[in-house]
C-alpha cells in the first residue's frame, strides 16, 4: 500500500450483536464461548471523566467459533456463568492494567493473558495505542472517536456499540501477528513472563493522592497546602457519594486558587477563579468549612512542602549526598540505555527505573564480580524483576557498581 493511499476502514465482520442484559442472554453467550476455540479477546468500557468509580459499563468478548458478544455488567448481580465459561482460556487484552481492576470488580479473573500493548512495547513499536498498532500491524484504520464517551449512558448509541465491538475483533488478529513477531525476535519467553506477572497486578494506593492535583506545586506555604488537602478531601467525598468525576464538581485549578486565597465568605469564594457552576455554589458551605478547618490546624498537622518519600532520595540529589552512588547510577543509566537500544525496547520495560534507583543506592558491599552478580540478581528479584530482566540487567549493574568506585580523574593544573 502506498503512503498516499488511505488505509481501509475496519468494519464489523458479523454485524452488530445485541447487548446482553438478561440471564437467558448471558447463558447463551457463555455456552457459545465454551463452544469456541483459541484465545478470547476481551475489552471493557468505563466512564472515566464522568464517573468517580472505574467500574465497567460494557464488556466485549470474541472467540473464534463463538462470534462477538456485548454484555452490560450493570444489569447483573453476578457474571459467574461468564467466568466459568472463560476458565482456563487465554484472555487477549490491550493495556491490561486498565481493564483488570474493573473486570475483577464484576467477578471476571483471568488465569492467562496476552497483552497487545505490552507486546508492542517489547517489540519496540514507537506507538502502542490500539489504533496505532492496528494501523502498523494490520494496515487498517480503527475508529477511536468514542473512546472518551460516557459509557454509563443508557441506552448506548449504536455507533458506540459498533466501535466497542470492533476492538475485540482486531485483538484476535493482533495477537496472532504479534505472537509470530515475538517468536521471530526471540522475545516469546520475555512476553510470557511479563504476562504472567500481570496476573498479580493491583493499582498502586497513593498515600497522599491530593498532591496529584494539577497546579498544587505552585502553592506557597504549608497552610495553603493544608487548605488544598482539605478541599480535595471534601470534593473526593462528594464525588464518591454521587459517583461523579471529581473534576465535574469543581476543577483542580479552582481548588488550588481557593487554597491560595483562603476566602472566608461565600461571595469571596465564588469570585475565586474557576469557582463557578452548580458544583461550586451547591457545596459552598462544604468548601468554606474545609478552608476554615485547614486555617485552624496546628502547624505540626500541616502537610510538608515535599511529599513523604520511601526509599532512596531522588537521583538529582545524589551528587551532593553520595558521589559514589551518583557515579554508579549514571553508569547504570548509560549502560541500560545502550542495552535497551540494542534490544529494541523501551528502557523502562527492560527494568523499572525505581528498581535501578534502589539497587544503585545500596548495592551489595562485595566487589567480587561473581558474588556481586549473585547479590544484585537477588536484589532485582526481590524488587519484582522478572528472570529475563535479571539475566540481562544484572551484568550491566555489576559493571556500573564497580565503575562507581573509581573516582573521576583530577582536573589538570
TrEMBL record:
Residues 221-301 form the HRDC domain. PROSITE patterns: HRDC. Residues 298-320 are annotated as: Disordered. It comes from the Bacteria. InterPro entries: 3'-5'_exonuclease_dom, Exo_C, HRDC-like_sf, HRDC_dom, HRDC_dom_sf, RNase_D-like, RNaseH-like_sf, RNaseH_sf. It holds the Pfam family DNA_pol_A_exoN. GO terms for molecular function: 3'-5' exonuclease activity; nucleic acid binding; nucleotide binding. One of its GO terms (biological process) is nucleobase-containing compound metabolic process. Residues 307-320 have a biased composition (Basic and acidic residues). This is Ribonuclease D. It comes from Nocardioides gansuensis.
Amino acid at each position: 500500500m502506498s503512503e498516499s493511499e488511505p488505509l481501509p476502514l475496519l468494519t464489523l465482520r458479523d454485524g452488530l450483536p445485541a447487548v446482553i442484559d438478561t440471564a437467558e442472554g448471558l447463558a447463551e453467550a457463555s455456552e457459545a464461548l465454551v463452544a469456541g476455540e483459541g484465545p478470547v479477546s476481551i475489552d471493557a468500557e468505563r466512564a472515566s471523566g464522568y464517573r468517580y468509580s472505574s467500574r465497567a459499563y460494557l464488556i466485549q468478548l470474541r472467540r473464534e467459533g463463538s462470534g462477538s458478544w456485548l454484555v452490560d455488567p450493570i444489569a447483573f448481580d453476578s457474571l459467574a456463568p461468564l467466568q466459568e465459561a472463560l476458565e482456563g482460556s487465554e484472555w487477549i487484552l490491550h493495556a491490561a492494567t486498565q481493564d483488570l481492576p474493573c473486570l475483577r470488580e464484576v467477578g471476571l479473573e483471568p488465569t492467562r493473558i496476552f497483552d497487545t500493548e505490552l507486546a508492542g512495547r517489547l517489540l519496540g513499536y514507537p506507538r502502542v495505542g490500539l489504533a496505532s498498532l492496528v494501523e502498523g500491524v494490520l494496515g487498517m484504520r480503527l475508529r477511536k472517536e468514542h473512546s472518551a464517551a460516557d459509557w454509563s449512558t443508557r441506552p448506548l448509541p449504536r455507533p458506540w456499540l459498533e466501535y466497542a465491538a470492533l476492538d475485540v475483533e482486531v485483538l484476535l488478529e493482533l495477537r496472532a501477528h504479534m505472537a509470530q513477531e515475538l517468536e521471530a525476535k526471540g522475545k516469546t519467553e520475555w512476553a510470557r513472563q511479563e504476562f504472567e506477572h500481570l496476573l498479580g497486578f493491583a493499582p498502586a494506593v497513593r498515600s497522599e493522592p491530593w498532591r496529584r492535583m494539577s497546579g498544587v506545586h505552585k502553592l506557597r506555604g504549608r497552610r495553603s497546602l493544608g487548605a488544598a488537602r482539605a478541599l480535595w478531601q471534601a470534593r473526593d467525598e462528594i464525588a464518591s457519594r454521587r459517583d461523579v468525576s471529581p473534576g465535574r464538581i469543581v476543577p483542580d485549578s479552582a481548588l488550588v486558587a481557593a487554597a491560595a486565597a483562603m476566602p472566608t465568605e461565600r461571595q469571596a469564594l465564588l469570585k475565586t477563579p474557576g469557582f463557578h457552576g452548580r458544583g461550586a455554589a451547591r457545596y459552598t458551605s462544604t468548601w468554606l468549612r474545609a478552608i476554615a478547618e485547614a486555617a485552624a490546624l496546628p502547624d505540626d498537622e500541616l502537610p510538608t512542602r515535599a511529599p513523604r518519600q520511601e526509599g532512596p532520595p531522588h537521583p538529582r540529589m545524589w551528587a551532593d549526598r553520595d558521589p559514589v552512588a551518583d557515579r554508579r547510577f549514571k553508569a547504570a543509566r548509560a549502560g541500560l540505555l545502550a542495552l535497551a537500544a540494542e534490544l529494541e525496547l523501551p528502557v523502562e520495560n527492560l527494568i523499572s527505573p525505581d528498581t535501578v534507583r534502589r539497587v544503585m543506592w545500596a548495592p551489595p558491599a562485595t566487589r567480587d564480580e561473581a558474588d556481586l552478580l549473585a547479590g544484585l540478581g537477588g536484589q532485582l528479584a526481590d524488587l519484582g524483576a522478572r528472570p529475563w530482566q535479571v539475566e540481562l540487567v544484572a551484568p550491566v549493574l555489576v559493571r556500573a557498581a564497580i565503575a562507581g568506585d573509581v573516582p573521576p580523574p583530577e582536573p589538570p593544573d
